[in-house]
Amino acid sequence: MFPDSPRLWQRRQFLQLSGLSSIGLLLGGCGLVGSDIIGKSFEPLNQSVEALLLNPQKLVPEFPASAIEPNALIINTFDITPDIDVKAFRLIIDGEVNRPLNLSLEQLQIMPLSVMTIRHVCVEGWAAIVQWGGVRLRDLVALAQPKANARYIYFKSADGYYESWDMPSALHPQTLMVYQKNGNPLSVENGAPLRVASPIKLGYKQSKWVTRITLVSELLPEKGYWEDQGYEWFGGL
Ligand SMILES: Nc1nc2c(c(=O)[nH]1)N[C@H]1C(S)=C(S)[C@@H](COP(=O)(O)O)O[C@H]1N2
Ligand SMILES: [Mo]
């Protein structure tokens, strides 16, 4: 019976805008997290993460689809290409969250689809304009209800690759977990079933074959596969 605080109302508006309230129902329907997903939406969110989620961040200009360079994206894999059973595939989101998630590809694909045409830049001296389609990482993080101390995000990949990102970059609206490339399902070589894509980071920050996303309060001694061999950690573009 108490009137909504502006903060609550803002969050409710955010959830509606991003379609997250209906995702809660969809996930509940899958027997995944049950009805608690709705109730917990109104618990205090990590305020700094919440500020990042609600405040507009500067968007990187995108390219028209006609600018896509279909053959320019060079496969760059440090070791083996992992063989992932898509039916058994789960994306785990854990660490400093109130609601750890375990999502199938199907569940990710019922979330709002974002498509962007951006330039992928590899430090080895090549670049490619690519169109990626997938889910905003910020929507996934919001769904997992980050705790107040969450400041960094780790991506763990099926080939043993690992990466860590700062929270503002991870929550940028153009940082996506993608399952489509140039209008088609992502190929295994490019990271299927799920990889990171973002116009604000260099290629080595964009993990392929991501199976686990972990929110942490502090960086570990291991910061990333290439970073631990001397590459710069932030890797911004
Ligand atoms: N899991 C994993 N992710 C990875 C890599 C890798 O070897 N393993 N290579 C990185 C590098 S250096 C680049 S440039 C891009 C290349 O993506 P592509 O192979 O789809 O062109 O993936 C990045 N993500
Ligand atoms: Mo790269």
Topology (SSEs and partners):
Elements: H1 6-17, H2 20-29, H3 36-40, H4 47-54, E1 91-95, E2 101-103, H5 105-109, E3 114-122, E4 126-136, H6 137-144, E5 152-157, E6 162-166, H7 167-170, E7 176-181, E8 184-185, E9 195-197, E10 210-216
Parallel strand pairs: 1-10
Antiparallel strand pairs: 1-2, 3-4, 4-7, 5-6, 5-10, 7-8, 7-9
By DSSP (H or I, 4+ residues per run), the number of helices equals 7
Count of discrete domains? 1
| Number of DSSP E strands | 10
User: What order do the SSEs take from the amino end to the carboxyl end, as H and E?
Assistant: HHHHEEHEEHEEHEEEE
Write up what this structure looks like.
By secondary structure, the protein is α+β, with helices and mostly antiparallel strands. It has a single domain (62-229), classed as Sulfite Oxidase, Chain A, domain 2, CATH 3.90.420. It contains seven helices and ten strands. The strands form two sheets. Strands 2-1-10-5-6 form a five-stranded mixed sheet. Strands 3, 4, 7, 8 and 9 form a five-stranded antiparallel sheet that branches. The radius of gyration is 17 Å and the shape is globular. It starts with 5 loop residues before the first helix and ends in a 21-residue tail after the last strand. The chain binds ligand MTE and molybdenum atom (MO). The ligand Nc1nc2c(c(=O)[nH]1)N[C@H]1C(S)=C(S)[C@@H](COP(=O)(O)O)O[C@H]1N2 binds next to loops. The site of molybdenum atom (MO) has 6 residues, from loops.
